[in-house]
User: Which sequence fits this backbone?
């Protein structure tokens, strides 16, 4: 009596022989993917900040339908500099057909205590403004343009 492993191996070998010649790496067709460049800027606001402006840290990112993501901006807490506007920046190539949402988790670092100035998730709708407002301030991602790469 043959073991289950050897039966599976025999079936796999027969399947490979049956399929041989039908698809080769040279003739395999990958689905067409349209890639885009995205130009954007991010504004950080903290109206009650006693300093010269917010020192943001955290991230703003595009979340993909498959669970992956692309960071548009990211800063660790250590080394957060005063920053009210980041950009405009152009990033490419992106497959925007995979984008599901935009998310932000932005805090502000100062000597008084950390403040939250942008948190949440918004549905991707392409070009436009996405504002994440918190008690201590806000973070606004502006998608300026989305252009197909040809």
Assistant:
């Amino acid at each position: 009596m043959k073991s289950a492993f050897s039966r599976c191996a025999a079936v796999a070998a027969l399947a490979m022989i049956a399929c041989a010649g039908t698809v080769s790496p040279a003739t395999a067709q990958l689905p067409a993917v349209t890639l885009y460049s995205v130009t954007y800027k991010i504004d950080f606001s903290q109206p009650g900040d006693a300093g010269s402006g917010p020192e943001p840290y955290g991230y703003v990112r595009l979340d993909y339908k498959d669970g992956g993501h692309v960071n548009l901006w990211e800063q660790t807490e250590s080394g957060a500099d005063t920053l009210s506007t980041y950009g405009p920046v152009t990033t490419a190539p992106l497959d925007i057909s995979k984008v599901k949402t935009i998310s932000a988790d932005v805090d502000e670092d100062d000597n008084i205590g950390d403040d939250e100035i942008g948190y949440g998730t918004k549905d991707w709708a392409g070009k436009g403004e996405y504002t994440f407002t918190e008690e201590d301030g806000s973070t606004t991602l502006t998608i300026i343009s989305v252009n197909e790469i040809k």
Notes: The two ends are 60 Å apart (CA to CA). Strands lie at 36-45, 56-64, 69-75, 85-94, 99-108, 115-123, 128-134, 137-148.
